[in-house]
Amino acid sequence: MAEANVECVPLKDHKALWVKVTTRIAWFVAIFTACGFIYSQITRDDVLPVKEIVVSGVFSQLKTDELKALVADGVEGNFFTLSVAVLYTKLLSMPWIEQVWIHRVWPDKIKINILEQKPIAIWDEKGLINAKGELFYDDASAYKDSLPRFVVDARYKQEVIKWNGEYKKILDEFGLSIKRFELDDRKNQSIYLSNKIKLDLGGAETAQRLTRFLKVFKNNLYREEGRISKVDLRYSNGFSVAWKQ
After folding, report:
1. At what angle do helices 157-172 and 206-219 cross, to 10 degrees?
2. 152 Cβ contact partners less than 8 Å away, ≥ 6 residues apart
3. In which element (H, E) is residue 133 found?
């Protein structure tokens, strides 16, 4: 029977290996302890507190001082432990705020940039909508004279926003604006202008029809503006006028 070869490791090699292992463990424990101590210090509220809140944006409804007070009330923790996500959610819960950007600026400042909602129309009796068609504020009383009212089904809201934008560019050249925009189930469009004239545009070539009418109106028909009740533009080469009784 063959004898097994057994290699003996000198005792001094065992000691060297043990010293190396224990040294590494000691370094690991020291680093871990130091990290734990540093973390316990920098997460204290009295260390690196937030001292300055900067709020920027172009506002017509929001007030900078009120926003700063709201943010200060919602700041919990210090520069490192402040929850940006919580602050972000709190600000976006305000109806007149569309978007928020929050940045930490070393060593004690929080910068907040806010995009205020911009209403483009009143959607039926429901409230104000923005350019995305989002209903964000239910009290439209302050805007009833300055914004158009959309009387349309929610399915066509985005299309009406697009058409309204196109017509606004055309009407601006003539000093007119849309006060009311209606759309029936067959997608026939009717708009009421700021001069109290109703225009039935139909559902095709509506921008061309509007432009054609306005040119005639500017040249001749404007003299009868106060007598006109409604104009039907759903003709291929002209329009008809209904007069006030």
Report:
1. 30
2. 123, 124, 160, 181, 182, 183
3. none
Question: Can you give the pTM of this predicted structure?
Answer: 0.77
How do residues 208-231 score in pLDDT, each as one tens digit? 999 999 999 999 899 999 999 999
Residues 6+ apart with CB under 8 A from 170: 207, 210, 211, 214
Q: Which of 82, 97, 116 is the last residue of a domain?
A: 116
Q: How far is CA 161 from CA 62, 193, 229, in A?
A: 25, 16, 25
Number of domains present in the structure of the chain: 2
- Tracing tokens 């065992």 back to the chain, one arrives at 14
- 203: how many CB neighbours lie within 10 A of its CB? 12
Tell me which residue range forms the domain holding 110: 52-116
Q: Would you state the torsion angle of the CA atoms of residues 217, 222, 228, 233, taken in this order, to the nearest 10 degrees?
A: 0
| Closest of 182, 183, 179, 212 to residue 197, by C-alpha | 179
Give the other-Cβ count within 10 Å of 28's Cβ: 10
